[in-house]
Amino acid sequence: MVDQKENRAAAPALGDASVSVPALRWDEPPEGPVVVVLDQTRLPVEEVELVCTDVPALVEAIRSLAVRGAPLLGLAGAYGVALAAARGYDVTEAAELLRHARPTAVNLEYGVRRAERAYRTAVEGGADEERAVAAALAEARALHREDAEASERMAEHGLALLGELLSGGGYRILTHCNTGALVSGGGGTAFGVVRAAHRAGELRRLWVDETRPLLQGARLTAYEAAREGMAYTLLTDGAAGSLFAAGEVDAVLIGADRIAADGSVANKVGSYPLAVLARYHHVPFVVVAPVTTVDLRTPDGASIEVEQRPGHEITEFAAPSAPGAGTEAGSGIPVAPLGAQAYNPAFDITPAELITAIVTENGVASPVTGDALAELCSRSPSPTETSRSGNGMMGA
Ligand SMILES: CSC[C@H]1O[C@H](OP(=O)(O)O)[C@H](O)[C@@H]1O
């Protein structure tokens, strides 16, 4: 068992919309620097922090989804490198452990690379160990700030896009998995747009896919929606089709874990069926992600490694209140015959032609093309403009 200590929050989170701790933070107690993560496997029942004093503990937190969500994984990777350096561990070995903790979200390897490069550049420039550690930590903090700023801009661009795509306010938005402050250094990606619509008085209903098997929607998005005072309704993933058929969905907003150069999007399993439903029912299907999630080195969706997770996440039901519940086979409540085989991809791939728009902090690509994505990635963050440019670009 890795060395993870627990801090219990002042009050239970369930039903208490006020209690909140950051999804991830750096701390420097007298006994040495630590990375502290809010254990998302325990939400919404308890807000419990995991204090990671070394990289194996942080890797375990990533693998168990105690800390999860593409942009936040980037921060975990960057702070993990700083933690290794600050504690005198082998930075190369630590970086390798971190970047391979989960394969699909490109942000993880990006965050590791940013902090590792800062550390190496300092060392090669003659800096002593203390200054090299400081350089890695400064880079992690810079990425944290950038992600928070990106959240703000994605929310602005996304709200402007909804105004262009949908006539009048009173949006009924369906979302999948969890894409709010729990996946980010700021307000999140797709849920950040939902929050902006809510605060602008434009959100009539948030349909929340529960998102089997780990229930990020039921446990986490509902938790964030409740704290925001939103009108939200939970549904099973299989019920989404009947909502579309009833004309109850005005738009689908989802996040992303990796966007390939051709605009294919890897996101939580169940995203692709939503894209097909949205296309069949002529509903806008919008992906919201920072440019750090766009991987121009991966040519297409078939080239994205989709994480295959253990079958017990499907064949057993894990009670989130128990420490470590569901992280090991046999620790949950069986819901299938012993020995049942399970197919458990964590993500699926949605082709660009089924995506109405990709919203980033640098603007909006619609239609989604490789050129439009590359252009967005080449830009610096931009203020919101909703003019549609000739090359299919929307936003600044
Ligand atoms: C916008 S990042 C959130 C993204 O990450 C989730 O995956 P996981 O919970 O396995 O980390 C899901 O794909 C969300 O869309």
Automatic annotation (TrEMBL):
<keyword id="KW-0028">Amino-acid biosynthesis</keyword>
<keyword id="KW-0413">Isomerase</keyword>
<dbReference type="Pfam" id="PF01008">
    <property type="entry name" value="IF-2B"/>
</dbReference>
<feature type="site" description="Transition state stabilizer">
    <location>
        <position position="177"/>
    </location>
</feature>
<dbReference type="InterPro" id="IPR005251">
    <property type="entry name" value="IF-M1Pi"/>
</dbReference>
<feature type="binding site">
    <location>
        <begin position="68"/>
        <end position="70"/>
    </location>
    <ligand>
        <name>substrate</name>
    </ligand>
</feature>
<dbReference type="InterPro" id="IPR027363">
    <property type="entry name" value="M1Pi_N"/>
</dbReference>
<comment type="function">
    <text>Catalyzes the interconversion of methylthioribose-1-phosphate (MTR-1-P) into methylthioribulose-1-phosphate (MTRu-1-P).</text>
</comment>
<dbReference type="InterPro" id="IPR042529">
    <property type="entry name" value="IF_2B-like_C"/>
</dbReference>
<feature type="binding site">
    <location>
        <position position="102"/>
    </location>
    <ligand>
        <name>substrate</name>
    </ligand>
</feature>
<feature type="region of interest" description="Disordered">
    <location>
        <begin position="376"/>
        <end position="396"/>
    </location>
</feature>
<dbReference type="InterPro" id="IPR037171">
    <property type="entry name" value="NagB/RpiA_transferase-like"/>
</dbReference>
<feature type="compositionally biased region" description="Low complexity">
    <location>
        <begin position="378"/>
        <end position="389"/>
    </location>
</feature>
<dbReference type="GO" id="GO:0016853">
    <property type="term" value="F:isomerase activity"/>
</dbReference>
<dbReference type="InterPro" id="IPR000649">
    <property type="entry name" value="IF-2B-related"/>
</dbReference>
<comment type="similarity">
    <text>Belongs to the EIF-2B alpha/beta/delta subunits family. MtnA subfamily.</text>
</comment>
<keyword id="KW-0486">Methionine biosynthesis</keyword>
<comment type="pathway">
    <text>Amino-acid biosynthesis; L-methionine biosynthesis via salvage pathway; L-methionine from S-methyl-5-thio-alpha-D-ribose 1-phosphate: step 1/6.</text>
</comment>
<feature type="binding site">
    <location>
        <position position="216"/>
    </location>
    <ligand>
        <name>substrate</name>
    </ligand>
</feature>
<feature type="binding site">
    <location>
        <begin position="267"/>
        <end position="268"/>
    </location>
    <ligand>
        <name>substrate</name>
    </ligand>
</feature>
<dbReference type="InterPro" id="IPR011559">
    <property type="entry name" value="Initiation_fac_2B_a/b/d"/>
</dbReference>
<protein>
    <recommendedName>
        <fullName>Methylthioribose-1-phosphate isomerase</fullName>
        <ecNumber>5.3.1.23</ecNumber>
    </recommendedName>
</protein>
<feature type="active site" description="Proton donor">
    <location>
        <position position="257"/>
    </location>
</feature>
